[in-house]
Design a protein that fits this description.
By secondary structure, the chain is of the alpha+beta class. The protein has eight helices and 13 strands. The chain has an eight-stranded mixed sheet, with helices on both faces. Strands 10-9-11-13-12 form a five-stranded mixed sheet, with helices on both faces. Strand 5 and strand 6 form a beta hairpin.
């Protein structure tokens, strides 16, 4: 969609969207053939794009997020989901603007700190004031009757919620309303992560039917889908600027909120992740509890003994949106692996891992649990956790090859 950016009298450079190989690393690492003498393995390596600065011309009418979806709907009238996503994204962007405002004024409106009632979410985590507010903002926005939404599933809710019958549609929204909220009192970047599924049944084992009532069963059948079924995903980052990065399955686009006009403006068309980076992002305090393969690989990044011969830098914010955004822009990898204390890591498959993995793959990267492609994992529960490693294709593939070699 780079062609949508007005360029009369302004400089604009947009790299074409990377196309993923149709060969995916869907098989477990343990059954891969050794690198020597084997046919080409399940790699996904994108060509390395040139990174050039994007500019928005102040003298031209900008390509806003609303106009972007209108243009797509007009150009691709026969493409499934496009016109419906236009309505859904109107609700999501409105909610993100409201959350951005709440975050920016948190310190002067007494919205920092924890809920005075000591509220605990389903994961057993004490909720901050903005966790609860952000969740309510998104729920109310997505229940808009023109939004085409049937089911809402939030990290802060015990169970998925069916939208009122008069307003319901055929889509499911999953979201983490305020990722990184533990950093909010320190003024560090936070964000909202979202994914959109089309309704689909039959993802559950049949023995569930005897355990839940019909309404809950319908919700669960539609929500418990693998990330490969997503029709859209993205995140909104609340930082020095408010930026929304999203995909609808046709490349990745980045929009920045212009406070002068109150609209998200296309500033980063056709984002592609570099094929290799020089930054790794992981909580190294957990290193003693990692598996030997991951420990060895991270050591190789620090001392330059990796296949690139480069010494990497470590950058870790502790807010997934911020860490993944930097990885998307600069390359490298982000990881929240399993360890001895948390075998499956701490990130939720539906609300964090699947939406981010879908977006990273659309940008030319790889997202894996270390054993399988994240988007192939069928959730067993709405709050299931999985290990996650995502980033530049060459960086992540090198780790996957080491896991394979260790399994021989």
């Amino acid at each position: 969609m780079a062609a949508f950016v007005a360029n009369a009298g302004c400089s604009r450079v947009g790299a074409p969207a990377a196309r993923l190989s149709t060969v995916r690393h869907a098989r477990p690492a343990s059954i891969r053939v050794p690198a020597a003498g084997r046919p080409s393995g399940p790699t996904m390596v994108a060509s390395s794009p040139s990174k050039k600065e994007q500019f928005v011309c102040p003298n031209e009418s900008p390509m806003t997020l609303t106009r972007y979806f209108m243009a797509r709907a007009n150009e691709q009238l026969d493409e499934e989901h496009v016109q419906d996503l236009q309505n859904l994204m109107a609700s999501i962007q409105m909610a993100c603007k409201k959350i951005a405002s709440l975050v920016s004024r948190a310190g002067i409106t007494n919205l920092t700190g924890y809920e005075s009632t000591g509220s605990i979410n389903v994961q057993g985590e004490e909720q901050k004031k903005l966790d609860v507010l952000s969740n309510d903002v998104l729920k109310h926005a997505l229940k808009w009757r023109g939004g085409k939404l049937g089911i809402i599933a939030s990290e802060e809710e015990d169970e998925p919620i069916m939208v009122d019958e008069l307003a319901s549609g055929n889509y499911i929204a999953v979201f983490d309303p305020l990722d990184g909220s533990s950093n909010i009192d320190a003024g560090i970047a936070t964000g909202t992560i979202f994914g959109i599924f089309a309704e689909s049944a039959g993802c559950l084992a049949s023995d569930w039917e005897a355990k839940v009532d019909q309404e809950v069963l319908t919700c669960l059948q539609n929500v418990l889908q693998p990330g490969s079924n997503l029709v859209a995903s993205g995140y909104c980052m609340y930082s020095s600027s408010c930026m929304m990065v999203l995909t609808t399955g046709n490349g990745v686009q980045g929009f920045t909120l212009d406070p002068e006009i109150g609209e998200f403006v296309l500033t980063h068309p056709s984002i592609t992740i570099p094929s290799r980076g020089k930054i790794y992002s992981v909580n190294e305090a957990n290193e003693p509890a990692w598996d030997p393969v991951l420990r060895s690989y991270i050591k190789s990044l620090k001392d330059g003994s990796n296949s690139s011969g480069q010494i990497y830098s470590s950058r870790y914010i502790g807010s997934m949106v911020a860490d993944v955004h930097r990885t998307l822009m600069y390359g490298g990898l982000f990881a929240y692996p399993g360890d001895k204390k948390n075998e499956n890591g701490k990130l939720r498959l539906l609300y964090e891992c699947s939406p981010m993995s879908y977006l990273i793959e659309q940008a030319g990267g790889i997202a894996t649990t270390g054993r399988e492609r994240v988007l192939d994992v069928i959730p067993s529960s709405v709050h299931q956790r999985v290990p996650l490693v995502l980033g530049s294709p060459e960086d992540v593939q090198e780790l996957l090859d080491q896991y394979y070699e260790a399994s021989l």
